[in-house]
Amino acid sequence: MDVATRGNTSISMQHPEIQGVSVVWLGDFNPKIFQPAWFAAEGLIRKQEAEKANIEIIHPEAVSFTLEWLRLQATRERFFVATTQEPYYEVVRDLVLGTFSLLRHTPVHKMGINTDMHFRMGSEDAWHAFGHRLAPKDLWQGILENPGMRSLTMEESRPDGYKGYIRVKVEPSARAHPGVYININDHYEVADPKSVIGSDEIRTLFERVWGESLRRSAHIAYTLLEKQ
Question: Which of 25, 118, 212, 218 is deepest in the core (most CB within 10 A)?
Fold first, then answer.
């Protein structure tokens, strides 16, 4: 474990112990299209993957299934794909782009590129110090006897000229203890939702910002951890 020391506490600067990325598109979808057999027929996944898919539901209102590397859900208003395997991040990107290149007339007006990271801290002291720094306890004197941070969410308008926001959530990790969970929701919207007649605008935007979104999310997470 690579550990950096700040003062009397140590912070683990290792790779996230658990991580994942998900893509959410909001629009007007036909859920029943998004089933393993269709993806295989269009060459977006392998036929063997489609045959081995764990299908949870296929219904006109909702579809949900998993592959070894992918979770996919679709409703009338929402399309969601996610992976917890870093080598498949770019495969997820290609799957989304390929899907909506074929379904280019599907109206889509919002999207989110979401990153989840669980970092194990170097010690209990480091874990507590991180929470104290993000949420100072002085304000709570006389209100709560022994306060502790359970969740902190910060948001800013997009700094890159696009419509949307960047939202950062920090919580104690439920999966790596002592650890920290950091979620970054990189949210984008089309300039004029009333003019949306297909997926071209969001698809082009997604392809353009994908790499920078993942780099920015990693930068946010590591910078937060380094501020100890």
Answer: 25
Report the greatest alpha carbon distance in the chain. 64
* C-alpha separations of 195 from 76, 91, 100, 198, 199 in Å: 19, 30, 18, 9, 11
CB atoms within 10 A of CB 214: 19
The mean pLDDT of 38-52, rounded to a whole number, is 98
Q: How many CA atoms lie within 13 A of 87 on its CB side?
A: 2
Q: Is 10 inside any structural domain?
A: no
Tell me the CA distances in angstroms from 68 to 6, 72, 84, 170, one per residue in order: 40, 11, 10, 28
Range of the domain at 51: 23-105
What total of structural domains would you count in the chain? 2
Helices (H), 64-199: 89-102, 124-134
Q: CB under 8 Å to 225, separation ≥6 — which residues?
A: 11, 13, 119, 130, 180
Model pTM?
A: 0.90
Assigned domain for 15 exists: no
